[in-house]
């Protein structure tokens, strides 16, 4: 590969790099701002004068956060959810995508099944039937209500299915010739080759589980079972002023409307996902099939 | 977050109506076949035998229990190990009455309302429920799912509790919870303080400019003009895209009312019929004036796109010196103004007045929430007794409770009364302003501290206001007490016209069309104020509103009140 050295292409490169850097900064800005708010003085944050740098720097909101047992309870629920949900999604996605990636003569009815899957992606029965189903199955208020209803993420299945279809079928044939059955082919050929795709879908499902708050809100009967994002959503959205009667109740407003503490909670809740990314990233460059087959 | 939830609720309610029709039938069947239906019949002969001995606070000999759905308390402060379900308050109820309460489910705020609708649709009702809206109560009654509480209230309610309910006069307290003469729910009471919206001004700016508080809208415009010159980077009056909302920050309920306009309320027209306030001609005058103020830059240019938080930031940062809000805003967001600038002073006024010199303020419905009992639950009287005990304890009329060390401990950590089983706040209609006035009198030496002895609530005001007097602006909590005692409390006690809507319910057409009409309304009003449409747009809006279902709704509302 030879780099063209004309000034046109160099300026074009410069512009592109500048543009991309700007976009990246735009993505970082809200995170940075949240961090700055969380490290600022309460009143300064409420007055909206905190932008990129903390005003009257203080650790107090993080100190307060460390004493908040509810936050850590919710954190634990979320971790449990991600671990359980991630594993279940991972296993079921592979088991669903692999057979469907075979050709129609190997698996009759494959197209029908795929279309049924796509259908459920586009249409759903609505909130009340969904709630009633889960309630009648007795899953309300348990961790399974957060994990099982979305056990097979269709979008991920379709991604993986398409990836598997792109794998040269000679690889599979050669495995068969060497006496491998479908299970062995899946475990020793497809999964190692599919690592980049698997890393992607796993990331999707982990981030999805970590970020979703609505099902927690609806399906958990006691706030002690809320996952972290539900807990945070309640903090940020709720400020009930409907019937204040006494000074004591009014005083609570002062504490609840605490932007810096909320910012600290939001920031801490981002950390696990920020940690997961680099670990999964190394799989993105692995598992390249280039050169495995000569035609 | 508000909008999606709102839409979702409408969808839910439509579903709910379909479903409540089905579950209504099953409820009736269950009632006929289950033995619990005879529970009501069983309990009626026993009281007649011991008619004289009913003690509203009497302990049950055998333990009684019920399950309930309960709203959660935001940021709940309780001692380690105590929960919403099991804390000193609930234990006190249990030891006094032998009534054990378990929570089927809890949730907070909007989530509670949503879950409530869902749990109705799934048909698993707890024995006792907190019902968040009048709409939900109506559908429960129509589906015949809840118990008639008339007898229970008559026999078991304590005189103390009855006194509170009667303080509104004319049975107004039970207006929305009575259906065909039957009391179907125990309501809370929205007191005066929950409705009155005051004008808040930066008193230090007024003083610097040597201006008097503005009595009329025109004088208010003068003051805003002066404020803008005084603080060049200030933005004028704050606002909210929801132009009117009860007991909220930055909305303009009282400003519209100064023109005799009551948007979102039902008012009597000249012929004694009810008409919708938002389409009345007064509204056009009010909008035209607001448009003028906005064009002149006396209203925050960005109020329509700002969230409440951003308008609060203007107040906290000293960028605005005028807002409309309820009595409690010294705690939030005004406290931040003082923290950022210790020289700042805020004062509240029952202004602006209308052309007759009267301050009008629109009021929310008298009830905000209800406690109902599932049809077939055997001990509705237990529910009544729990409320008796709770109310006696909350208002400090229960010496045993008040003297208990746990009560003191809970007070110190600031545990909310909402940890009691029922989230029904029931107070005397004028409690906040009366307490504030009494505290002010003592503070100014017009009365001695003896006057506070019997009024525990006023004493709390006095103590904190005194602390502020001795050490000004040291503690914003004390400062907030001081402002209420000296400014917003007395302002609320001024003579004023509390304007109630003639109808707070929901009619059939509202269910299907209200969202479209509300959207049309708020968009038109905002466009007129922001100047993107002319004032004459109002007339087109009125025509459209009528055509798109407004006429039907008006007819239904008039039919509902018997016109």
Automatic annotation (TrEMBL), chain A:
Q: Superkingdom of the source? A: Bacteria
Cytoplasm is among the record's keywords: no
Q: What stretches pass through the bilayer?
A: 12-32, 82-100, 112-131, 143-164, 185-210, 263-280
Q: Tell me where it resides.
A: Cell membrane
Annotated membrane topology is: Multi-pass membrane protein
Under the heading InterPro entries, the entry gives: MetI-like (IPR000515), MetI-like_sf (IPR035906)
| PROSITE patterns reported in the protein's UniProt record | ABC_TM1 (PS50928)
Query: What Pfam families would the database entry show?
Result: BPD_transp_1
Q: Which family does it belong to?
A: Belongs to the binding-protein-dependent transport system permease family.
Write the protein's name.
Carbohydrate ABC transporter permease
Organism name: Cohnella silvisoli
UniProtKB/TrEMBL annotation, chain B:
Q: Which residues form the signal peptide?
A: 1-23
Q: Which PROSITE patterns does the protein's record reference? A: PROKAR_LIPOPROTEIN
Please note every region of biased composition (Low complexity).
Answer: 31-48
Q: Write down the superkingdom of origin.
A: Bacteria
User: Which SUPFAM superfamilies does the record associate with it?
Assistant: Periplasmic binding protein-like II
What are the UniProt keywords, alphabetically? Signal
- Region Disordered: list its residue ranges: 28-54
Q: Which InterPro entries match?
A: Bact_solute-bd_prot1
Protein known as: Extracellular solute-binding protein
